[in-house]
Amino acid sequence: MPQRKALVVGASGLIGNYCLELLLEDPTYNKISLVLRKYVDKTNSKLVQHIINFDKLEDFEPLDITDVYCCLGTTIDKAGSKENFHKVDYEYVVKTAQVAKKVQAKNFIVISAMGASQKSMFFYSQVKGEMEEAIKNMGLNCVHILRPSLLDGDRKEFRVGEQIALQISRLFSPLFIGFLSNYKPIHAQKVASAMIKYAKQNAKGTYIHESNEISEITNSV
User: Fold this and answer.
1) CB within 8 Å of 157: residues ≥ 6 apart
2) Model-level pTM?
3) Domains (ranges, CATH) in the chain?
4) Catalytic positions, please?
5) Using alpha carbons only, what angle is made at residue 43 by residues 62 and 39, rounded to the nearest 5 degrees?
6) Per-residue pLDDT tens for 17-38?
């Protein structure tokens, strides 16, 4: 079986870091390329790091990539403005998809968010929805869009609002059954694992995966 080659964009983030660790341990991948603003402190024979200007991300052309993992994402508070948030969560993600199309990657796997919709009254969800629609219409071989719920995991930065919401969600998590299961917090490592599992399905077309589905595939053998 031919070995896979991954491109990871957003490897310094919560999900991206878990995704990178899992890919480095995965014997079916023999090369993992990263695009970053600064080098990560990792050494591995499979790892190739590229420092680029994200405003010109669409000009980046890696060689021989089978799967593109887009883990980009920020918050309006961290970005500093709605404009900067839009740049990261929409523009940079679309540019990454353009790279995937240019190199004819078999899979483009991207992180969105629960409730993503162009028609949402919330700016965050609206931008995520616009991103999803743009990706769907790009003519990629296979697109997997993941919509995780509130993320659990070891963040490098402390987000007060998310930590409060996470503690409350953990407390009431046993009550989230049936259709409410989609609102359970999900660990970022599970999301990263699901991304890789979806890529290995070798499907064609566009698929949207809600949080409960993401949890289910990681629990399956």
Assistant:
1) 78
2) 0.89
3) 4-158+187-219 (3.40.50.720)
4) 124, 128
5) 60
6) 999 999 999 999 999 999 999 9
